[in-house]
């Protein structure tokens, strides 16, 4: 094959090398617009895994690269005058210039033609595709090839919020990959610093747009900008200067990072690679890794598949999965730095933990493998904050107090509808279901949304708090749980609103009943879907009546013996129908602005708080994102909602999301709703509960230790395993959980199995 590689960076050079290794008869030319000694970055970071992949592909270049690596194992975080160091992270860095020189040398040895100062204008790309059998477009972040075929590649470019500038220094930071956070007269500025050769380190300076504007960096020359950065970080630079190698850029050289992802990566015989196809934010250091491993993969497929189209298809399928995985981690990391000012008041221990776990690639137990001593000290710190100074247990087993209620641990059994009630009365099913989960070790057990009136039920199988027999049944449960377990019980009360009079959950969710429908109410006459009945828009009399029904339900829950109450104002039910503009079309004082939309829910919440005993906590569940963009409730509005709740003596916010509209397009994943809890907790100071696809003890401990929530709710895991908490404790080697006395032999066997690594079945 005759091959043209557009771009002489790591992607283009290493693809050319890999192709030659597969078949020396290939004629390959690398076209690079810069000179061979030009480079506009400083150091790059690779993992041990990537080094092993390079060695398997080409032992010669891998050995040469290894000779020039700077290795370090520690991460240092300097924040609030405290330097926190953790170990076991295993990084290696090399100068970008040195890497390119080594790859250029290897390419020449293999007979690859390198043409420098060969600037390929966009108009010539079609000509090259006719002249060569294959054109590899590794022409970088501002790829002309991607731009030329934009209608086919369909690039999605997301320009991120922070400003950064890529600098170098002879202060080597040779003891650790170092993050430095400095508070200035214009706001916080931070640096990512790491050594990449014997006497040089990369030094990336980053800040918010507001801070950048306040400093006036945009109007400065590069040297003026560098002088300000040297002043900010003077006590960390040890007298060394900061340096730039971006003299070709006019102005201060600060930029915003663009996240690039293309819908397609090839057209005819032209294929994208490296930053031309996809980018990963520098805060996880994976751009060069992606490029080198993509080069290996494409070269292999071009020799294993029957034709070029098949090779391109396999390449894109395999590498897209890896790119999306890394971009997901990079997005988490990027957003953490974009929002870092909300975390800078955290204790240095928790701040360090939050930084280390920001991408979700490093979890709690992974940190234990890397640096058990540091993690154990952090766990002891967490327990001290919880009032447990002698404990070294994992965060999930720290106590938590709200008003007069103290939970034995931070695990919550989420409310999960059972659809087993008869005329609103809980049955033996409910007693067994909730009693089992209370025996299973969780600190707090919710009952499902329990409705304040017959018309407020979601389905005919939903339980209620509106008849004397309901109170009798719920009191039986409360008495048993309090007598036999350390668990506390929370009653979630709500009204179905526009989602009422629907089928049982295992029939057709949110679909109207085939017969026997009852009239429903909502903020406005907006049906849940085209199939659902149109609700009556509530008038003042309806509002007064339903507010009093909430109060009566709360009073009944107190008499039954519940320790805590939650008002359900999420998921499109009645109170939620007021909060979200998707269903609130009112033109009176209860519609329009967020303050108006919150007016009636706040009336209900205040009335419940007044009726509910002062020593018992009150929670409110909200949907923090309608998942429809600015047309619905946004995460910004969720913070404002939480502030209103905080001012109304609400003790904790149960932070869910979505389920308010059939138009919602949620972004699913592990712990996918936790960021909303994180933001509310750390911007308002109110306690929060995190929910949503949380299913491992590792998830729970990571969320708590990073300060992303105060309590963690698990739903489906508790359906599969009522004893999830006790089993998780055994898996962590924790033997301090309270088991029911008759179950002692089972506890002992489980702990022995866990010690042998056998688990349970």
Automatic annotation (TrEMBL):
Entry's Gene Ontology molecular function annotations: FAD binding; FMN binding; NADP binding; NADPH dehydrogenase activity
Domain named NADH:flavin oxidoreductase/NADH oxidase N-terminal: residues: 396-732
SUPFAM superfamilies assigned to the protein according to its UniProt record, in alphabetical order: FAD/NAD(P)-binding domain, FMN-linked oxidoreductases
Superkingdom classification of source: Bacteria
Pfam families: FAD_binding_3, Oxidored_FMN
FAD-binding domain mapped to chain residues: 5-321
Protein name as catalogued: Bifunctional salicylyl-CoA 5-hydroxylase/oxidoreductase
């Amino acid at each position: 094959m005759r091959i043209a590689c557009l771009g002489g960076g790591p992607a283009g050079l290493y693809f050319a090398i890999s192709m030659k290794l597969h078949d020396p008869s290939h004629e390959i030319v690398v076209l690079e617009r810069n000179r061979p000694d030009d480079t506009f970055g400083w150091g790059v970071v690779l993992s041990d895994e990537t080094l092993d992949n390079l060695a398997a592909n080409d032992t010669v270049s891998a050995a040469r690269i290894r000779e020039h690596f700077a290795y370090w194992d520690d991460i240092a975080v300097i924040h609030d005058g405290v330097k926190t160091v953790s170990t076991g992270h295993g990084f290696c860095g090399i100068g970008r210039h040195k890497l390119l020189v080594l790859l250029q040398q290897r390419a020449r040895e293999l007979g690859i033609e390198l043409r420098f100062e060969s600037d390929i204008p966009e108009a010539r790309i079609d000509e090259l595709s006719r002249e060569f059998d294959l054109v590899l477009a590794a022409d970088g972040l501002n790829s002309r090839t991607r731009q030329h075929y934009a209608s086919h590649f369909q690039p999605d470019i997301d320009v991120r919020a922070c400003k950064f500038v890529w600098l170098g220094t002879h202060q080597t930071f040779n003891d650790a990959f170092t993050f430095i956070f400095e508070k200035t007269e214009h706001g916080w500025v931070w640096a990512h610093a790491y050594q990449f050769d014997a006497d040089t380190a990369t030094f990336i300076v980053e800040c918010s747009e507001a801070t950048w504007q306040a400093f006036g960096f945009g109007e400065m020359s590069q040297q003026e900008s560098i002088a300000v950065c040297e002043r900010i970080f003077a006590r960390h630079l040890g007298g060394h200067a900061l340096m730039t190698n971006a003299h070709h850029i006019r102005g201060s050289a600060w930029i915003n990072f663009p996240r690039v992802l293309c819908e397609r990566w090839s057209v005819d015989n032209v294929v994208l690679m490296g930053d031309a196809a996809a980018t990963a934010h520098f805060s996880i250091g994976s751009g060069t890794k992606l490029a080198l491993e993509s080069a290996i993969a494409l070269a292999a497929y071009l020799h294993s598949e029957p034709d070029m189209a098949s090779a391109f298809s396999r390449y894109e399928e395999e590498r897209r999965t890896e790119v999306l995985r890394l971009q997901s981690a990079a997005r988490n990391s990027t957003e953490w730095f974009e929002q870092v000012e909300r975390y800078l008041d955290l204790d240095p221990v928790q701040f360090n933990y939050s930084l280390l776990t920001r991408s979700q690639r490093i979890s709690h137990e992974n940190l234990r493998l890397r640096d058990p001593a540091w993690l154990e000290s952090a766990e002891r710190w967490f327990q001290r904050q919880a009032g447990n100074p002698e404990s070294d247990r994992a965060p999930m087993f720290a106590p938590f107090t709200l008003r007069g209620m103290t939970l034995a641990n931070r695990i919550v059994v989420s409310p999960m509808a059972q659809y087993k009630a008869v005329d609103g009365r809980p049955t033996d099913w409910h007693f067994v279901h909730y009693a089992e989960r209370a025996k299973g070790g969780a600190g707090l057990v919710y009952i499902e949304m329990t409705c304040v009136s017959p018309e407020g039920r979601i389905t005919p199988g939903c339980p209620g708090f509106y008849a004397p027999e309901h109170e009798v049944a719920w009191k039986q449960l409360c008495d048993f749980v309090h007598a036999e377990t350390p668990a506390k019980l929370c009653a979630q009360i709500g009204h179905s609103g526009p989602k009422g009079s629907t089928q049982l959950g295992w029939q057709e969710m949110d679909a109207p009943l085939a017969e026997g429908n009852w009239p429903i109410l909502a903020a406005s006459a907006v049906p849940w879907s085209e199939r659902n009945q149109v609700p009556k828009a509530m008038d003042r009399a309806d509002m007064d009546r339903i507010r009093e029904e909430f109060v009566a339900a709360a009073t009944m829950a107190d008499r039954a013996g519940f320790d805590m109450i939650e008002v359900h104002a999420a998921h499109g039910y009645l109170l939620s129908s007021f909060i979200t503009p998707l269903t609130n079309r009112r033109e009176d004082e209860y519609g329009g602005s967020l303050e108006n939309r919150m007016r009636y829910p706040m009336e209900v919440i205040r009335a419940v708080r007044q009726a509910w005993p002062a020593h018992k906590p009150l929670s409110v569940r909200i949907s923090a994102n309608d998942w429809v963009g600015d047309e619905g409730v946004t995460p910004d509005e969720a913070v404002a909602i939480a502030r209103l709740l905080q001012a109304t003596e609400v003790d904790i916010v149960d932070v869910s999301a979505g389920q308010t509209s059939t138009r919602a397009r949620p972004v699913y994943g592990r712990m996918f709703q936790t960021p909303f809890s994180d933001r509310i907790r750390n911007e308002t100071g109110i306690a929060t509960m995190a929910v949503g696809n949380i299913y491992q003890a590792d998830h729970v401990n990571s969320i708590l230790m990073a300060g992303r929530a105060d309590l963690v709710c698990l739903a489906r895991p508790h359906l599969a395993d009522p004893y999830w908490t006790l089993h998780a404790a055994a898996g962590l080697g924790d033997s301090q959980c309270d088991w029911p006395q008759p179950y002692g032999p089972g506890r002992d066997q489980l702990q022995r199995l866990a010690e042998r690594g056998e688990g349970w079945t």
